[in-house]
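Re: [help] complex structure
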Amino acid sequence: MKRTLSWLVAGALSLTALAGCSGTTAPSSAAGGGAAAGGDTVKVGLLFELTGNVASYGTAEANGAKMAAEEINAAGGVNGKKIQLVEYDTKSDTAETTTLAAKLMTQDKVVAIIGPATSGGMKAQIQLSAQNKVPIVSGSATADDLTVTNGKLNEYVFRTCFVDSYQGTVMAKYAASKLNAKTAVILKDTSSDYAKGLADAFDKQFKAGGGTVAATEAYTAKQTDFNAVLTKLKGQQFDVMYVPGYYEELGLIIKQARALGITAPITGGDGYESPKLAELAGSALTDVYYTNHYSATDTDPKVTAFIDAFKKKYNNATPEAFHALGYDTMKFVADSIKRAKSATGADVKAAMTETKGFSGVTGTFDVDPATHNPIKQATIIGYKDGKISVTEKFS
Amino acid sequence: MPPIVRTLLTRGVPLLALYLVVLGLIGAGIIDAYWMATLALICVNIVLAVSLNLITGFTGQFSLGHAGFMAIGAYATAIISNAVAGPAGFLGGLLAGGVLAALVGFLIGLPTLRLRGDYLAIATLGMAEIIRVVFVNLDSVTNGAAGLTVTQNMDWNWFFVLTVGSVILIRNYLRSRQGRDAIAVREDEIAAESIGVDTTRAKVMSFTIGAFFGGLGGGMYASYFYFIKPDLFGFLKSIDILVIVVLGGLGSLSGSIIAAILLALISTLLQGFTEIRMILYALLLVVIMIFRPEGLMGSRELSLNVFSRLGRRRPALATAQAAPGASEAQGKGDER
Amino acid sequence: MDQLAQQLINGLSLGSIYALIALGYTMVYGIIQLINFAHGDVYMVGAYVGFASMAILGLGVFESLALAMVTCMILGVVIERVAYKPLRNSTRIAVLITAIGVSLLLEYVMLYFVGAAVRSYPPLPDYFNAQFAVGGVVISAKSLIIIGVSVALMIGLQFIVQKTRIGKAMRAVSQDADAARLMGINVDNTISFTFALGSALAGAAGVLVGIYYNTINPLMGIMPGLKAFVAAVFGGIGLIPGALIGGYFIGVTETLVSGYFSSLLQDAVVFAILILVLIFKPAGLLGKNVREKV
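Output below.
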């Protein structure tokens, strides 16, 4: 019995090994479309959170990037070569991200990786990017310490979005100058580094501008009852609330705050960007302002062309900021490959660092060689009675 | 042949062969960074599953908080190895992580293990949740929810030594007097007590040792995968480990090892279907409990002795064919 | 003072939900000594049934509440018959693992079909959105409705358990299943009935939460489920009044902790309460300490 068992196990194990190999030889090539023989294509990795708890951001960005790749290929590709996308799902898990990034860099031999959408996912592949000399670019990883860690530049890490501290600073200025706020309270989501980064920057800038921050409170993601903490804040005097976080909780916070009789403007960052926000908050969504990467109501021809193409491809849906950022990131990568001396990771990285005046849907930017951050403007979006009432560029 | 030599031959030789084969494959570039990461994950899962099996499978104490111990080990290793460069920091970190996890396990186990088994499940779950919340809020040390970047210190040598070492130590513990006591507690706590087994002591010992290796597993994870954050060590992580233990068999160390390898394969095959993976895990738990509560292996063990037994039953020629074949298969399995 | 009054109202609304869920835990535990991990997910299913009934079938709030209760009742019985009944004679660990499996199954099957994104309940009739201001304290009609419906359901439950034949059977089985069988009580049916009752209450809680917070998602059952369990243990598991007291206690404690200390601590405090209760008074507030039978 025991012997049979051991043979069975040995058999199972070798099958495992074989099946594993064959399972991995067929990466899903997504938007490659008319990609011909190996020499005529240039491989780019798409590594996003397609499932798991941040799937909504990852999927949106991946879809934006795929659309851009199709447009690039339809227009003849980059330097005559078609872009071939190799797409994997990180399952919103950082160990999986490390594993798959290693696979993209060493097995699939991509020249650059786009994604993941979150800073944590990006951090899981920083060391690999340097070891394998493959640039990694995110459209939405906004943590300040992503590109520069402990004062040292991570050479192969790039992004096409502004950083957390910038968003917080912009909103603090906006609150002081346009909303005439003297006193603010901060309510931040402590389970995300993103919200904490925004809150810290807001706090610093608002105080520097002569305002006072009366109280700082916190909540955690997935909470649904904010009445307790809001009741506590209601006891304070303030002109504006700064509430960085994500729309799932923000919709509820706005609704519960207004129900408790808090009437001060509520402000925040790009985590507000979702049609769900209006759905969750309903008519309570009034006097709400947030910083964003772009606005779907922008009349810039570049933006309208993007929105039309997106609606055509994705069933008439209106693109969100994450779609636009994914789209821009792909275009940025393609642009860099075009300018690079050769289609190798090191040369593409050099081209990325030298980017000047890249013009995308989310704005025109240069890459700052010292930090690898794009230098771009933020858009302020304001809501009144559940409808967008303000969109303006501000910095 | 003296027993010690035989043990070395029957157990040591296949293990050494496995080690060398993988080392060779790494040298030849067949095991590249991707396969190595998968292999690393398997090793971490083996250590975690075997240590949870000690608590749940062998001692019969249902713990839902193994991810909490893992978190302690991971953070201790990360913080210490980031502060002190070189092997000293990394090994010291691993050790400190294990000891800290064991300490927490001891403190939480001492009062709660006296209670009935199902309360323990909730208490350990609560404990893991509290540990996670503490790490999120200890901003200055853990960098909060943003997580910590860790230097990669582990390679195949360390994985081999730590994984094999953990399994052997736990196996030897189970064969010691204390280990037998633990198994007696699982079989029948009242009967065990009546024949003079100090049941609380046996339970706390197993729990503490399990926590130590849980912490070690966390440290191994942190030292390979560059980045840790509190979210990684949530309830679902504890469930992941539990699934491995249940699938392999409550009370079978080799079962846990096989299940860790098998599940890594399933996970790779289901790369594009994550939602289905969780549904499958859930079904697996229910179906195994209803139709095969003993798991793949039950409490049987697949011992490396099979090679020697094969050798004794067959002529020399057959041994030469069988043994390398089997160990190679195992080597391949481990690559995954 | 206003602030404290407001916090108490917040806490009572939240506590009503915990109490409703805790009742299901406590009844099931009382009768077969099983921590039904899937209970929190039955509550989640209830919330989705209520959503579908309002958004797709266009039914009113109270019809949807009834529909969700009936659906969850059936779901509870199916879970009991398919997953737990075959394990009646297995070890405790086996049943607990099954319960966790069922819980994950409900969560991820739901996730597969409806997606991970949160959904918001359709707009409600105006009287739900009314608000009363008493001094500086705001009381919303929703809070009153959620507290009112919970209390009404709990009184109904107490009536069933104390005054009806099947209630008497439930109490008999929970005391001694074998003796009850000898007395001619159909133990299997009684257990199924217990699951049905508990699940119906969880379904009701799901719809009430959907109305109150306006947001539902497939994993919404995990945390409230665990906290409701803590509530049941706090009050004395197996005791219906205990679940009630425990639910309100946990709700109010949580609110006060986040109102006066930090909202980050609220989950940790709840679990710390659990561990302390388990150490110092494992039978709970209303329970008597019983030595385990040999």
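The first helix of chain C runs from residue 2 to 32.
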